[in-house]
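hi support,

uploading two proteins for the ticket. first:
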Amino acid sequence: MGQGCLRGLMLLLLSALFGLTACAPPRSSRITIGAKNFTEQVVLGELLAQEIEALTGEPVARRFYLAGSYLCQQALVSGRIDGYVEYTGTALTAILKQPLPPIGQRDEATVFREVSTLYASKYQVTVGRGLGFEDTFAMVVRGDDAKRLGVKTISDAVKTTPDPKGWRLGVGYEFQSRPDGLRGLEAIYGLKFAGEPRTMDLGLLYRALSNSQVDMVAGNSTDGPIRALGFVVLEDDKHYFPPYEAVPLFRNDSLRLHPKIQVAMDRLAGKVTADEVRGMNYAVDSEHRDVRDVVREFRQSKGLGV
C-alpha cells in the first residue's frame, strides 16, 4: 500500500474516532441523586432532590433503588450520580473497608471525622453534616415474645429463647457479610441461633417476623413496621454497633459546578429526627402514600426550600 493510501486510511480512522468522541454523551448537566433499594433511602433521596430543585429552580434526576451500598458507591465515583445519603458506620466498614474502632471508641464525632477524611482523600467526595438522626442496625423481635420472655436487651436474648433450639434469625444480604454485621455480633454477645439465618430482601424481613417464619430479624432502627406491628428493638447493651449517622455525600466537582447543592445540604443539616424519618417511612410503607407527597409535606412543616 502506498504512502498516500496510508495517509488517507489514517485520516479516515482519525475522522471516525473524532466522530465517535463527538457523539459520546457528555456528563449530564442535570444533578442526579441516588438512593439504595429500601424505603428510607428513597425518602432521603427525595428529600435531597426536592430541596435542590427548590433552590435551583431546575429539575433533578432521580436514580433510586440502587441495590445496596456498593452500587451507590460505584455510581458516585463514576459520576453516574452526583450524591446520595449514606450512614457513617456503613461508610466506614462496608465502603472504606476500615476496621471497627474498639468498643468505647465508637463515638459519632470520631467516626464522622475518619469517614470525612477518607472520602476526601480517596474519592474527592465531601461528607455533609448529618441530617439529624442515626439509623443503626436493630435486632427486632415480636412484642409478644419480648413480654413473655422478659427480653429487653441483646444480652437478655442470649439467656432465653422462644424455642429450645435457639432464635430463628432473618437478615438482609449485607448484614450477613459485613464486618459490622452478624459474625461480630455473634462473637461479642455469644448469641446462638437455630441453624443458619434466613437471608432475604429487607422488605420481606418484617413479614417473615410477623408470620412467625423467624423469631428475630436484623432490621434498621427507623423502620416504619417496628412501631406499626408492635415489634420491639432489643437494646445493644454492649455497644457493638458503631454510629450510623445519616449524612449526604457529594462529588467535589458536582459541588463546584452546582454550588447550591452545598446550600441544600446546609439547610437540611440537623433537620430530621429519628421519629420524623420513622413517620415518613411508615407513611410510605404502611399507608402506601406517594413518597413525593410525604417528603413535600415534611419540607413544608420545616419551612424548607422557601
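and the second one:
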Amino acid sequence: MDKERICLNALGTIFCYETAGALNLIQACGSAAQVFATPANDLREMAGPAGMKYVEQIGPAALEASEELLEKMEGTAVRYITIEDDVYPALLRECPDPPLGLYVKSSDTSGNIFTDRPFISVVGTRDASSYGREWCSKIVSAMAGCPRRPVIVSGLAMGVDITAHLAALENGLPTIAVMATGIDEVYPFRHGRYADAICSAPGSALLSDYPPHTSPTAIHFLRRNRIIAGLCSATLLIESRIRGGGMNTSKIAFGYDRDVYALPGRIDDIRSGGCNLLIRSKIAEPITDIEELMERLGLGRSGNLKKTDLEAVVRTAFADSPQLETLLSLALLVKKRRSITAEDISYETGLPYHQVLALTALLETGGIIATDLLGNCTIDVHYC
C-alpha cells in the first residue's frame, strides 16, 4: 500500500481541525512520510507551541491504525482520496485549511464526481417552512434546466438540506452530502434511504473527512460546514435563524471569497432572520429573481421556469368528481394564500371543517398541494 497515503491519512486523523499545522509540517519535511521519519525533537521545533500536542501522536501506532483502516476499505464502496491526488476537489484545495484526505462513498468513480462542472451548496435550517422548502425545490429545479448543470452540495440534515438533495435527485442533478460523521454513520438515521439513493445516483456521493465509526457531535458539524463551503463556488442560504449551521457555512464561504446568496423572508419570521441579516450586512446578495440568479451563478438561462396550468391539472385529475369546482377553488385559494390552514379555508369558504379536510386530502393525494405537520397547506412548486 502507498506509504504516503497511509501517512496522510494518519496526519489527517491526528490534526483533526487544524490541518494547516499538518500541511506546514509536510512542507517543512518534504512529504507526509518524511514527517513520520523526522525525530520528535525536530518536529516540536517545526510545529511550535500550537502544534506540540499533535507531535506526541506522530508515531508507529498512528501509522498502524491508518494502514489497517485503509486495508479494510479495499474492495468496498468507500475510497480515500488525498490532497495530493488529481481527483481531489480543486476549490477545496485552495482553502487555507483543506482536509488532508476525504472518505468518499459512491457507486461512481471519483473522476466522475469531482469534475469541472459548477459545485453549488444549498443550505439552511432544519426547521424549514413550507416557503423555504418550496423555493429550495424551485431553485434547484431551475438549475437542472440550465446549460451548465451543477452539482448540488449540502449536509444531509433535515429541512433545507434534504430538500435540496431530493430536488437534485428528482431533477437528474448530481448531489454530494457532506457528513458530520464517519462515512458509515448516517445522521439523522431516518435519512439512511436517502443516503443510499445518493450513493447510487450518477456523479453523486457521500463525503466525510472523519474516520469511520465517528459519531456526530456539535463541533463535527462546524468542521463539516467548512468542507461544504470550500467545495463550492457559491453558497445559497434558503432559510436560517440568526445562529445556525447554514449561517456558519455562509460566513465561511464569504471568508473563502466565494459568492453567497440568501433568500429574503418576512422580517418577523425567525427562520428568515439569518438570511435577512446576511443581506443587510452585505455578506450575501438577495435572491429576488431565479433567472437572474442562474445567470449570476454562471449556469445560463433556465429552461425549467415554465409554470404548469393549475386549473388544467385539477380539471384533468378530478374530471369525474362531482366536487370538481370546489376542489379547483380550494387549489386556487391555497396558491393565493401560501401556508393557509384547513381552519382558515373553512372560515373563508364557509365549507364545514371536516369537508375541507377531506378535500385537501384529495388534492394532496393528487400531488397538487402539500400539508406540513402544523396543517399548513402549500401549492406544489410546479404550479406557483
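thanks. also noticed: The first helix runs from residue 3 to 15.
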